[in-house]
Amino acid sequence: MTRGAGREARSTSVLRLALPRGRDWTTALAAGTGSALCAVALLAASGYLITRAAEHPPILTLTLVMVGVRAFALGRATLRYVDRLSGHDASFRQLAVVRTAMYRRLTVVAPAGFGAAGTTGRGDLLTRLVTDTDRLQDLPIRVVGPLVSAGVTALLSVVAVALVSVPAAGVLLGALVVAALVGTVVTATVARRSDATTAAERGHVADLVLDTVRTLDVFVAYGTLDERLADIARRDDQVTRAVRRRGAVESLVGALVGLVGGAAVVGILAVGAPAVTTGALDGPLWALTVFVPLALFEVVGAVPLAVLTLRRVRAAADRVEQVVPVDLPAGLVREPDEEAPADERVAPPAVTVRVRDLSVRWPGSATPAVDRVSFDLDPGEVVVLAGPSGSGKSTLVDALVRFVEHTGTYTLDGVPARDLHPDAVRARVGLIEQDPFVFDQSVRQNLLFARDTATDADLLEVLHRVGLGEWVARRGGLDAPVGERGGLVSGGQAHRLALARALLHAFPVLVLDEPTADVDPDLADAVLRDLVGTVRAAGRTLLVVSHVPVPADLVDRTLRMRDGRLLPG
Q: Quick count: other Cβ atoms within 10 Å of Cβ 509?
């Protein structure tokens, strides 16, 4: 299978996920088809009724047709309402399923695999997960529904016309084929690659806007804000022009289909007139066949637009698949669909870690990032994992918290980590990353998600343990805001907040990844002493990952890494 064919197959699985199932969706398809049939039958019956009435027959002979006209009119409106109600309800419900599946896949890729996911930035990622995912709802509403309704209605209309006049049915069938070919050819020619390009440009604009807002002070300081805004405006104009071209294509396709429908009416008139003149064909029945294409091509006119929409939806599905792939890149840990067992989610107060010949290879890499590493972490120990940047320390940490797969042996209290649910491993081994995330909420909300049953007294107590008690008091208490991504706190305070969360969660083993990376060098030693002292006082096992020296009196022993391996001694 080629790379393009493989990606198309994966995006097709995303489209399949976006298609609703169940009674509501079946009801919508049936109601939509019934509404389209009623629309054609209404116009055809009306034409027959007017023509037959012109012959002044007894009124009783027209009663059945008059009742049919009323029934078709009521049926068209009622079934259309049912179609919209059931179809949109089913589509929106399925969109929730799609979002849940996307976020579930994202939890696998996000910690360690975004580099291979194809995203270019946070704005592009947001566009894919919001705008492109929203566009998937067009698949049932504007693609599958119209195609099913148009297909069934066209088939039954041709059969009905054939019962009256086979030549007229031939003309109608030929016109339908021409309309389908014209619509799809024009769509493919004019709109080729436009939807994928537009989606990518929209994501790039979002990237630029988000990056500009986040670093506005830098652009202002260097006097380059006007240039950046001009670049954003230029790219936004490109997106706007592409959207306008799409609207022009839709209008052109609608006009062409309308012309073909008019030609079908003229053709049926031409083939039926001689038969009516000779009496071989009943005049009112002939009028019925003439009126059929007038209504039918309103229904069929949705087919080229559905094909155009399908191109846009497929482009969106392809972008969504790139960031949340169905086929997980090799080396990343796939999250099970079921939750961890209750007994595994409750971590013991102390855990012994044993690592033997552990190796990690990143997706697409020929050489291992961590190569045959062995060490132990005993309960209550404080161990430093030292080494220069790029030596494999963070990769080893990712393996310990089961973000990436490993070879070799890694056990927790003698149980292989692979035999535990990933959530169970993360209940035992907690990670405070190098740049800990601080939510744009209050101090209280930044702590409660670690243990939602904690009282204010519990929160204040843990804040005092990490040295933030007086700071919180000066800020006005637990409701003090911390700003977007912790903009109102320093790097050291962010690490202390993250440590407070970890202590609330009571991880038996805690990993501090570069805890002084964002701290002033003059304060780094004091911050590190506070963090290590707090964890040691809590009786937790601590692994400190650092590329800068850690005072020897703070730790029990030091492990040193270089080029993915632990150095002897």
A: 24
